[in-house]
Amino acid sequence: MFSIAICDDQRAICSVIENIIVEYKKSTMQEIQIEVFYSAEKLNAFMKHEHNYDLIFLDIEMKGLNGLELGRKIREEMDNQVTQIVYVSGKDSYFKDLFEVRPMHFLSKPVEPDKIIKDVELAMKLANRLGGIFSYKKGSDTHKLPIKNIIYFQSVNREIKIVTTTGEELFYGKLQEVFRQVAKYRFITIHKSYIINYEQVANFKYEEVQMSNSACLPISQLKRKEVRRLQMKYESERFL
Amino acid sequence: MALSTYEMVYLLTNIFGTYIVYKFMHVFFETKEANHKIEFLSYVGYYVFIALVYLTINIPVVTMIGNILAYFGLSFNYKAGIKRRLLSVLMIYLILICVEVSVALLTGYFNYSLMAVNNYSSEYGLVLAQTISYSVVRILNNYKNIKQGEIISLANWAAIIIIPISSLYIILTLFQARGLSWEQVLVGVVLILLVNFTIFYLYDVISASMVDKMDKIMLGQQNKYYQKQFELMESSLKTTKSMRHDLRNHLSVIYALVEKGERDTALKHLSKMTDIYDDMRQYAYTENIDIDSILNFKIQAAAQQNIKIALDLSIPEKMCIPSFDLAIMLGNLLDNAIEAVSELKKEREIKTKINYDKGRLIILVENPYQGERVKVGNRYLTTNKEPSQHGLGLENVKSVLQKYNGSMGITQQSNIFSVSLLLFV
């Protein structure tokens, strides 16, 4: 089930977006659940009680708590890096602060149905891509981790450290074998001792990446062009 | 074959010597794009080649020609035009030979023949020569403009290159001249070296001033963009003003129409109002003045040819990239797209997406096209009527991308030509 929240203090906008998605849901038989909120406070309270969404259409200019502040709460206070946020705004200009929330897209009002549907499709693709499970052996036990929570793998001597959104794990293994298991989920080997989750990168540079937990990891000299090429590939797929 | 001490020292110091040549190449050429593996292998190859020439033939004139050819070969690791390649190779060789010869003279070797087998054999001399060459390359490293020397005109280039060529000839003649003391020859060689350094310096200055001149031309272009933007803003402001002024009138008309139950007329009136609004929407209003100006300038130019540019922009109002560089990238991509689309009868639409995401600026320009785009080497030729302009635009875009460690991707699928840029800002 793919869950979407729509949050805007203008009810008319909410219902326009909702109708577009409902129509899309009918025509494609997708399992989509939609919830509508008329203020950021309500959505905030709801999400604090463990309600998670895959995608939020979030208005920027709202009375009380605004879209930017809520976006920050989601990323920082709730430490949720997975929910995709699409900002909807009456303006065409965005402040640099908004980009810290790492929105998937910006839409300007009046909204265009095509663009809404494209964003829903893209978010579903991203959610599917991260829906996998990573399993590893520790002693004789097999442990499992949701792929989307993994930030990066690091090889430390003969062990591998998994850094996730909730903590760290250590197990004996080889980085190449780990890569074989996670390659299809858009993980990139940026260095002989690091494999990163592309969706968990907060900021890219040519020579390093900053992950969502603020760890800065180096991209080795030999990998830089390849890492950039992959970014090009992933980002242009996003455009389609 | 047993090696003498001198030959052993020669082989060892020449490893360092090869490194010095590598450093020299890096002074004269833009080396970012070089493939490191191939580069490394080519220098190893150079080392082996020179060692073999020395051990087997060892005739100065052969070594000299061998070296010049080898340098020329090495220079193909780097991107440069033929003019700069020749000049750089000659300069490098000349500087190195001058150092070597001066040291030979200082260590007491004098009056040898170019054609006979060389019997110079001072180990200290070898080490000294390499050390001096290394210091020279460290000093030259400070001249950064030289790498941009491509833009110097042919006449300037000819004037410059005549100096190292003649110097080389004079040095060789000095050696064979009878009746000169070794001090006289040494002073001559050192002076020639100085002359060449001066030329190197001048070359650097000329390159810098050429870059400056180009910058000024670009600045002029940019001012034009701003002028256009200003005009656009003014006219759109007028439209909004008159719309606001008319709003009351429009509303009362619609109110009356609805009251009378004339739904269709009311709708017609409303859609007319939306049209005016849509008309404004086709322009960029992101408040990122740089991008807005460039886009609006191009949108207007395209509109004159009845071409639509569809926008999807997600960019902050300020970014750490000079408007200048943006103008080169967006301007060129859009110019190419407009040109391609202008030949089409239908589908006259260009899609432009600009997205700032996690420290990266991503630009995508997509246009339908007709027929095949011609590709020569790795350059796409435009259908531009002026042959000298072919592919120049994209080359300029590439040189901007280099500054931001960016890259460009070009795809053509089922009559859609798309160029995407990714750069770190």
Residue runs with pLDDT of under 50 for 5 or more positions of chain A: none
- How many beta-strand segments of chain B? 7
Rounded to the nearest angstrom, the radius of gyration of chain B is 32 Å
* Low-pLDDT regions of chain B: 384-391
Strand content of chain A: 25-35%
Strand content of chain B: 5-15%
What is this structure, in a nutshell?
The complex is a heterodimer of chains A (240) and B (425). Chain A has 240 residues and is an alpha/beta fold.
Can you characterise this structure?
- The complex is a heterodimer of chains A (240) and B (425).
- With 240 residues, chain A is of the alpha/beta class.
- Chain A is built from six helices and 15 strands.
- Chain A has helices spanning 11-28, 40-48, 67-77, 113-129, 175-182, 224-239; strands spanning 2-7, 32-37, 55-59, 84-89, 105-108, 133-138, 141-146, 150-156, 159-164, 168-172, 187-191, 194-197, 201-204, 208-211, 216-218.
- In chain A, strand 6 and strand 7 (141-146) form a beta hairpin.
- Chain B is α+β, with helices and mostly antiparallel strands and 425 residues long.
- Chain B has eleven helices and seven strands.
- The longest helix of chain B has 78 residues, at 182-259.
- The chains are: A alpha/beta (240), B alpha+beta (425).
- Chains A and B meet through strand 13 and helix 6 of A and strand 1, strand 2, strand 3, strand 6 and strand 7 of B.
